[in-house]
Amino acid sequence: MTLEREKMKTTEFHKWVGYQIYPKSFKDSNGDGIGDLRGVIEKLPYLKSLGVDVLWLNPVYASPQVDGGYDISDFCAIDPMFGTMADFKELLEKVHALGMKLIMDLVVNHTSDQHPWFIEAQKSRDNKYRDYYLWADATEDALPNNWRSFFGIPAWTYQAATKQAYFHVFASQQPDLNWKNPALREEIYAMIRWWLTLGIDGFRLDAISHIQKAPWDFKITSLKGNGPWQPFMNVAGIEHYLSDLRAIFEANGAFTVGEASGVTSDKASAWTDDDGYMDAIFELEHRVIAPNGHASISGYKKVIMRWQQDLQAGGGWNALYLENHDGPRSIDLYGDGTVASAKALAVSFMLLRGTPFIYQGQELGMPNFPFQTIEETTAPENQAAYEKLILSGLTEKEALDKVTKNSRDHSRTPMKWPDDTFTTADRPWMVELQDFTAKLELTELYRALIALRHDEPAISDGAIDFLFTTHPQVLAYTRDDFLILTNLSTKKAHLSFPPNMVKYKQVLGSTRRQLTENMTLDAWSYHVFQRADS
Ligand code: ISL
Ligand code: CA
Q: Which of 83, 142, 365, 402 has the fewest CB atoms within 10 Å of its CB?
């Protein structure tokens, strides 16, 4: 049954709030210790009660689970660990019945090495599927070039049988697809149409800025920042594929948000404006880490302000987030582990210009996990890094602390439901936080912020203007007739406003305050004011 798809008004998603679900750790419905689709169905009333509009489901496709489901062996099948296609269709129907939308992860930079296409491609140089992937002549000791994968290994794996190596920007079990091959592109486009016809409401575009590669003789000139990734980060020619994708999304009224690593804020409007390839963009720049391993709030603030100003100027659109499945918990990374810090951080990002996404457990104040052994971790890049550190002479504890400091494993521990367990199994698939109590006051604050976004056009579509831009710890901005002040630090902050400011009234705050010419903000405080004359 193909759901009638009303053509979405172009800016309807400006009012939305997204909620990201990592299904493996969300809710286990059948007692095997692994989260699943029926578990998501069970929690739809909770998600509806939060007020979120669109659910982003991390991959639930058939996968050997080398990279948390981002190594897909069948794009059009649900992995049995998550349930069946019938379960998925029931989930989709129930999401729609509750007036919410569901977007899936579109992982088309690569497949799993267990995908039938790659099983075939390895057989011989002239196999029909060989050029669905990227091969180049090599020997056991000499790979085609010195490019590195994001996972700290060479970006090539040699295959002796055909005396060639294949290319992968992630794990060797994730061979990159050859987007230069029109036959491959058509297969991907058909798969995308299949899911949209099934009735999903759009996609989060995984690693989409990597699908075009530079010629193999491209020379990496810098190892700083994104230098090592230049040959496969927003490379010229990608725009042709993105235009094809946009045509399919437009034809189906799909909501799309791209994970576009390496697309700079001055270019991101072209990707997300009215003629853009997608509706919104997740930038990967704001997680600025200070030498002590904690986030730099001033670094975070500078990046956020630049993205907000550039995309406002260019008519583009941000997807906003503090947490996702690829990073540590924000209460520990940006905050100091207290609920006060989590609340000030929530206000700081939830009212910016863009579509905010809340990651599962963020609204409960879930913290990082105290890993005791490398076996407790599951992200593939950690194993390689851990072994290298041990070889370099670190003790197991030193190596573990280094590898897990800001690891994405922290965001993948099972949900700690306030009034429920994650599973009835004795041992969930991954270590579970002990003695954690959900911070319900934080959940309530998220509910209030979501309601504010829904009710106030100034927040969903208003202009943004930053105040105290050089202050190292205060993130302050106006959204038309709203004024948002957040002190993202344990230190008090002294602010002086110009005299004869217009009258404001507080609508939300960590304490009840009037807006006065000179204000001292408490540690981790937040105040949302609205012009009294509005
Ligand atoms: O890795 C990066 C920077 O260090 C990014 O440039 C990269 O684009 C990003 O990490 C990609 O992440 C996505 O694709 C991966 C998967 O492991 C992640 O979970 C997913 O979010 C491969 O599919
Ligand atoms: Ca299960």
A: 142
Strand partners, 205: 106, 258
Please determine, for residue 4, whether its predicted confidence score (pLDDT) is greater than 50: no
The tally of domains found in the chain comes to: 3
In this structure, the answer to whether residues 348 and 204 fall within a common structural domain is yes
Helix/strand number for the chain, H first, E second: 14, 20
With a 6 Å cutoff on the Cβ, whether 207 touches ligand 1 is: yes
Regarding whether 284 and 265 lie in a shared domain, the answer is yes
Q: Is 206 in the pocket of ligand 1 (CB under 6 A)?
A: yes
Of 506, 503, 505, 493, nearest in space to 467 by CA: 493
Does one domain contain both 127 and 57? Answer: no
Question: Residue 158 belongs to a domain with what CATH number?
Answer: 3.90.400.10
Identify the three-state secondary structure at position 529.
strand
Q: Please say whether the beta carbons of 341 and 302 come within 8 A.
A: no
pLDDT at 285 over 80: yes
| Token digits of residue 437 | 């109590």
Model confidence at 10, in pLDDT bands (50, 70, 90)?
low
Determine if the pTM surpasses 0.90: yes
Together in a domain, 99 and 236: yes
Residue 11: band (very low, low, confident or very high) from pLDDT cuts 50, 70, 90: confident
* Cα distance between residue 474 and residue 486, in whole Å: 6
Instruction: Write out pLDDT tens, residues 335-381.
Output: 999 999 999 999 999 999 999 999 999 999 999 999 999 999 999 99
- Give pLDDT, residue 1: 39
Instruction: Tell me the CATH number at 92.
Output: 3.20.20.80
Count CB atoms within 10 A of the CB of residue 404: 24
Residue ranges making up the domain that contains 203: 3-110+182-367+415-453
Residues 156 and 205 in one domain: no
Average of pLDDT values for 440-448?
98
For residue 51, which of 384, 444, 370, 434 has the smallest C-alpha distance?
A: 444
| Ligand 2 center from residue 99 Cα (angstroms) | 26
Mutate to test the pocket of ligand 1, among 21, 65, 66, 70 (most ligand atoms within 8 A of CB): 70
250 among known catalytic residues: no
160-179 average pLDDT score: 98
